[in-house]
Amino acid sequence: GDFTTGGFCNRDLARQLYPTADNDPAERRRIASEVSYWLRILRAHGLIHKSPGQRRYHMTTKGREITTALS
């Protein structure tokens, strides 16, 4: 619900997935890298698309349908 209209970025997902992550720079890089990997997978499957000229992603219609079916 929170990211439906404005989309989401790597940092938003990292905060949702790792709310208690350390503030260590190496740990932040590792988490950002992991989230980037999953964003690439979701894009490859057509579940999200990147906003042109921004660092934000939006769910596609296919992504919304699958998310609804799984919830």
Comma- or semicolon-separated keywords:
2 strands, mainly alpha, 8% strand, 71 residues, two-stranded antiparallel sheet, 54% helix
Major sheet details: 2 strands, antiparallel
Give the integer mean of the pLDDT values. Answer: 91
The helix-and-strand class reads mainly alpha
Name the helicity range.
40-55%
Task: List the total number of helices.
Answer: 3
> From the alpha-carbon coordinates, what is the Rg to the nearest angstrom?
13 Å
Number of strands: 2
Give start-end ranges of low-pLDDT stretches. none
Query: Distance N terminus to C terminus?
Result: 13 Å
The amount of beta strand, in percent, is 5-15%
Question: What is the N-to-C order of secondary-structure elements (H for helix, E for strand)?
Answer: HHEEH
Number of domains: 1
Structural notes for this entry:
The protein has 71 residues and is mainly alpha-helical. It has one domain (10-70). The protein is 54% helix and 8% strand. It has three helices and two strands. A two-stranded antiparallel ribbon has the order 1-2. Helix 1 packs across helix 2. The longest helix has 20 residues, at 25-44.
Task: Give a concise summary.
By secondary structure, this protein is mainly alpha-helical. The protein contains 3 helices and 2 strands. It is globular.
Produce the secondary structure layout:
Layout lengths: L9 H8 L7 H20 L3 E3 L6 E3 L1 H10 L1
Antiparallel strand pairs: 1-2
